[in-house]
Write a structure and sequence with these properties.
Blueprint: H1 2-20, E1 26-30, H2 32-40, H3 45-53, E2 57-62, H4 63-71, H5 77-83, E3 87-89, H6 100-107, E4 116-119, H7 123-130, E5 137-141, E6 144-147, H8 152-162, H9 169-198, H10 203-242
Parallel strand pairs: 1-2, 1-4, 2-3, 4-5
Antiparallel strand pairs: 5-6
Helix pairs in contact: 2-5, 4-5, 4-6
Length: about 240
Amino acid sequence: MKLTRQKHAKKNMGFYRHNFHFREPFQVLLDGTFCQAALRNKIQIREQLPGYLDGATQLCTTRCVLKELESLGKALYGAKLIAQRFQVRNCSHHKDPVSGSACLLSMIEEGNPHHFFIATQDQDLANKVKKKAGVPLLFIIQNTMVLDKPSPKSLAFVQKLQTNQLVPEHQKQSIVQLKEKEGLAKQESEKRRKRKRAGGPNPLSCLKKKKKKTQEGQEPSAEKKKRRKRKRNRVKAEALQSV
């Protein structure tokens, strides 16, 4: 069972590495529900997660998540202690903290540019994460951490990329530059063609044709002169014979 789970995780990680350019160390955003589930199931997140994802990880959370755990009191005191050990990523809610789920959603806006994983047991948050392409989802089930399979949104995004219907923002600039270079190349080739077309016929070929015409024009006149000469000689001969 453990080998099968590891095999699925490796396959899913390959999908995110290849199609969404995830690189080590993998940044995992955790909320209070995930920390509570790890505590209850005696899971050592920091020790076990790098082996499961087959790469170095950075466990992190936000101020909003810590504020939420603090407000819930003794019930989630252990989860708060776990979350406090993680790196705190800056969010946009410094003055007005929001719920942990709303904060994590704001961290993956605009195509998840920082390549965050989301680790949560909140089903409502998980469903919202699945509606965004390129966001890996982690949860705990049967005392083990599980990397969810790519969502239909992520699969559709990749399919569009493969059919050239959607181009990532970081590739648009390079495509424009290539088109400009190609346009310049076409203009240069058209100029060369025009230069070749502008040249007239070979003057040597023209001279040869003229010579042929003059020779052809001279041949009939020479034959006429010969005929006239023969005729004169014949007349002279006949005149001598009559004398």
